[in-house]
Structures are given as structure tokens and as C-alpha cells.
Amino acid sequence: MRFSRIAAIVLRVFYLLRGSPARILPLFVWVGVDIVVWGFITKYLNSVTASGLNFVPALLGAVLLWDFFGRVMLGVITVFLEDVWSRNFLNIFATPLSVQDYLTGLVLSSIVTSSVGLFVMLLLATGVFGLSFFTYGLSLIPFLLVLFLFGISAGIVGVAVVLRLGPAAEWLVWPIPVLLSPFVGVFYPLAILPRWMQAVGHVLPPSYVFEGMRAIVRGGAVSELNLLLGASLAIGDVLLASWFFTHVYQYAVRTGLIARYSAESIS
């Protein structure tokens, strides 16, 4: 890998954002709306229930963590789709840029864009709705790390799907967070799910994050073994997703499918 080539991809994202407010606003507007809506829902639930459970760390914290995963995943996919929309993807791989350089550039670009969304979410959740992250303690760091790694792997898989099926397949990748959320127990424990959904949930790293979060909210302790398992699954998912993308890219080059991303074939 060459650092200069990776930096060029990140720099291109910077220029795109700098020159277009329409690209900057989605980085924080939608996550801000989510936090505001769920923040008022949690305040309402706290006012009408006598259970003594504070819904702010239980529900608003879950929304924040899941939105962070979504921002990371979409950060990877959007950078790739910018190249597709501008008919620039084929031009990029006509250069000495390697697949590893490109994927690393996507990941670093996602770090930048998702950090903006995370900052806005933290600002609103803590400043407006009183969500204290001291509730989660140091466990918040591995929580974010697991979700970040899984978001990267989901983003790379989404990129590979569009690369394999063509630009029209982008609609398949946008609903990925929504499709995964029932299986990972964002708002409820996995124990209430049917057995087959529990089996799926146990191989998805975010499920260990949200189970750990609920354990802390109930006054218990997060299982270090479960967090380690979640982190191991997330790392494995990143490696598997990278292999999948490389395999799809090589197939697209070998069969000529990559030509669909050229200006001549699209116009």
C-alpha cells in the first residue's frame, strides 16, 4: 500500500464536502433528528412509568450506538457511490491504485465522516437530554470499537454488492441497518426472539454490544468474554468482507463487468 494514494482518496472526499453543502448536511442532520425524536420519547416514557428505570441510557444510548454503526457503514458506501455517480470508478482503477489502497481510503474517509455524526449525537444526547456516558464507563470504548469494525465490514460488503450487481443495486445496501436491527436486539434482549433469530443474532457482533449495554443499565456488569467474542467476530467480518470485495473486483475485471462503470457504457 502507498500512503500517498490512500491520502488522495481521503483528499477527494474533503474536496467534495468542501464544495457542496448538500453533502455536508446529511452527515449530521439525520442523526440529529434521530437523537431529538428518541430523546423526547425517552423523556415521555420516564414521565409516565413508575418502574424506576431510566429510559435515557437504555433507549437513547441504544439509538446513538446504532446510528454510529449506520454512519460508519454509509460512510464507506457513499464514497464508493460518489465514484459511481460521477462515472469515475473505472478511471480510478486505471491508475496504479490497488484494491488495498482503495479499501483503506474508504475506511479512513468513513472515519472522518462518521466522527462528525458522532460528535453531533454526543452533543445533543448529553447537552439536551442529559445522557451521561459515565453510566457505561470504560465499556463505551469497546462498544464503539465493535460497532465501528462491523460498520466497516457491512460497508465493504455493500460496496461489493453494488460492484457485482451494478449501479442500480445501490437500493439494496441502504436498508442494511434496518434489516439487521431486529436480529441484534438494539432495543430488546435477544432472549425474547425466536430461536432461529437468536442464532442469527449470536453471530452478529452488535448483539454483544447491546446486551452488554443493557446489563450496565440494569446495574450489572458487562461480560468481558462476550465483548471479546463480539470484537473477534467484528475483526473476522472485516477480513471476510475484504476478501469478498477483492473476489468480486477480480471477477468484475476478468469478465468485463467493470466496464459498466465507464461513461461510455452508462450513457
Question: Can you offer a commentary on this structure?
Answer:
The chain has 12 helices and no strands. With 267 residues, the chain is an all-alpha fold. It has one domain. The two termini are 33 Å apart.
Fraction of residues in helix: over 70%
Uncertain segments: 263-267
Distinct helical segment count: 12
Count the E strands. 0
What characterizes the major β-sheet?
Answer: none
Shape: globular
Briefly note the structural class of the backbone.
mainly alpha
Strand content: under 5%
Number of structurally distinct domains:
1
Q: Any descriptors?
A:
267 residues; mainly alpha; globular; 0% strand; 12 helices
Offer a concise description of the structure.
By secondary structure, this protein is an all-alpha fold. The chain has one domain.
Layout of helices and strands:
Elements: H1 3-18, H2 21-24, H3 29-48, H4 55-85, H5 89-92, H6 99-127, H7 140-165, H8 176-184, H9 195-201, H10 206-217, H11 224-255, H12 263-266
